[in-house]
Amino acid sequence: LPPSRGRPVENTPAYVAQKATATFKSLMVAAAANVRLYQIFVVDPSGPPGDATAAISEPTGVLFTSYELADLLYIGANGFLDWEVAAHHIVHIALGWLLRANCGPDFTAMVLMAQESSSVFLNYFLLVRHRRAGHWATNASFLAFYLCFCLWRLVLGSYGALSFVLRRHELPANFPSGDARRLDAALFLATALQWYWGVHIGRGLWRRL
């Protein structure tokens, strides 16, 4: 890789390694979550929740939540943690813990993890934006990231959060009411952050056009 003209930390092995591992994690989590959502939306929307793809929910959720926690500690220890990344990770760790502690709801968990689809392109863009500014691949990765961000994080993410709130009465009787309220709050915060970033990213894309 050519040297970065951005922050000095972007030239460290720790930064490059973090982007590589984050991309691999995003690919695995997004693939599993999107397969499950395809089953829910397309293959058998009215079917029971216990079909074959439901088995991927728990290990994918554990992988996602564990990685977010480890990544938060890693980037903090290596000096490239900012408040936006910290807020993102803390909210998603809380959501992951609440969802895994209560074994669902499966649909809510899959919607959250499918949002990793946009992170595949984001990680590449963050790695090369100060190395190959203006290069077609850099611009293409940013455009792909924003399109995926709008589809998965804004549209699907908002739908998933609203769906949980409107269908909370359908939760199992043994689902703790306190955890349901905490999920309400965490989903609201996560959705608000996504819309904040969506507007900010959209302005950045407009400047590039």
Describe the protein.
The chain is mostly helical and 209 residues long. It is 75% helix and 0% strand. It contains 7 helices and no strands. The chain has helices at residues 13-43, 57-77, 83-101, 106-114, 116-128, 136-166, 177-208. Helix 4 packs antiparallel against helix 6. The longest helix is centred in the C-terminal third of the chain and has 32 residues, at 177-208. The two termini are 26 Å apart.
Brief overview:
With 209 residues, the chain is an all-alpha fold. The protein has helices spanning 13-43, 57-77, 83-101, 106-114, 116-128, 136-166, 177-208.
Tags for this entry?
mainly alpha; 209 residues
Structural Rg:
18 Å
Outline the low-pLDDT stretches.
none
Give a quick account of the main beta sheet: strands, pairing sense, barrel closure. none
Mean model confidence by pLDDT: 90
Coarse shape: globular
| Fraction of residues in H or I helices | over 70%
Please work out how many helical segments DSSP would assign: 7
The counted number of beta strands is 0
Layout of strands and helices, then pairs:
Blueprint: H1 13-43, H2 57-77, H3 83-101, H4 106-114, H5 116-128, H6 136-166, H7 177-208
